[in-house]
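Why does residue order matter? Because the sequence determines the fold. Keep that principle in mind as you read this record.
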Amino acid sequence: METALQNSLNQLLTILRFLRLRGRTNVSTQTMAENLRISNEALAETLSTAGIGVQGNCEYEIGSLLDVLETLLGHHSLNEAFIAGAGKMGSKLIQSKEFKRCGLMITAAFDVDTALIGTEIGGVKVVNVEKLTNLAHRMHISLGIITTPPDQAQKIADLMVASKIQVIWNFTPSQILVPEGIILENTSPNSDLTSIFHSISERYLNKRPWTLSSK
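Structure:
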């Protein structure tokens, strides 16, 4: 991404975060343009160049727009992931050489087992699953891997979706359901993880261009 475009998007990101702190939930293209001190046409051109479609002087949900901008600016990278379920399968994936070869790093593991919480697996700390949402927001995690017992998979998927995780990689036999717009990959532990990860990454990138839904 060119520096000028990146600077403009970072400025807009700062403005939107400030508006959200002030209690705003929606923002118009007019307000965004005024805060950036540019015309509506210049704003539309900037967003279009970034791959974001807007529809005239409409209002948009600030949260959704923040998600898109943070993704464009690299805040939501698929190179880092959380894994829920630190048992046998989870431990194997955390230490997977295939993950390392394709540049995927597990930054935290989550579990409900008090015997596992606080321990480390291959240098990755196991944390109480109750902390997943807070850490996902702080660390801008977009990829969540599920290796829990099958009867817990849907509950964890729901938690990941609520935590704004956009890609869910399910290694359990459970057929989980996710909302439209969330990328779901169901995989056997013995599959070619490198090929599947590259496929997931392509699907994630191909979500562009985005057209924001007006309020």
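The two ends are 29 Å apart (CA to CA).
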